[in-house]
Here is the input.
Amino acid sequence: MKKVLVIHPVTTAGLEEKFRDYFAGLARGHDLAIDSVHLKTGPASVETYFDEGFSLQGVLDVVAEAAGRYDGVMINCFADPGVEAARELVDIPVVGPAEASMRLATTLGHKFSVVSTFRNSGPWVERQARALELEARLASAVGVEIPVLELGRDPGLTARVITEAAREAVTRDGAEVIVLGCTCMAEVAKTVREEVGVPVVEPAAAAVRMLQALLDLGLTHSKIGVYRNPLHGTGGA
Here is the structure.
């Protein structure tokens, strides 16, 4: 059985409980064991570049500890904080939800749109897509102005707001696929998918499945080009 560690790059302990059943469902029947952990020091949520930067050292410290104990790591945030650095730090595959879900979306249709949280997430996603060389496939990226930690407060409202934004992306922007731009939208993904009528990619599940595929294929990240082994440690205590 392959063992995977999901890192919540925040200090909000409740996220582990929130995702426990969801990840258990993804693991069930797949010869996969999924553990999760949150940070001891870092932001409560990742919604700005400052939050992302604040999370990085904690993420890398946890990744370093995971090597030798886990077969792979998923960093559970659409900002993909620390993913690139973590790939250099360890020799096991490290996957982030944004890259996994956007790449998956391109196999499901020509153009995809991302529906995320705050307004700043729109240009943030555009920059992510550009870095992944997927900018030409991105129809639009929008935020619904619901903070990450409030997405689960009223799931019905959250689903309605996301569905409305997704439908607009389809009709106005020509999106053929919708990517949910926050893993905390997982609990409403099924509802949105049924209402919108086009493929809706939930990024946490996409990342877990991509990680599982890498493990099944015996693949991990190359260290002869863009990634290399670090010259120094994580810098943690």
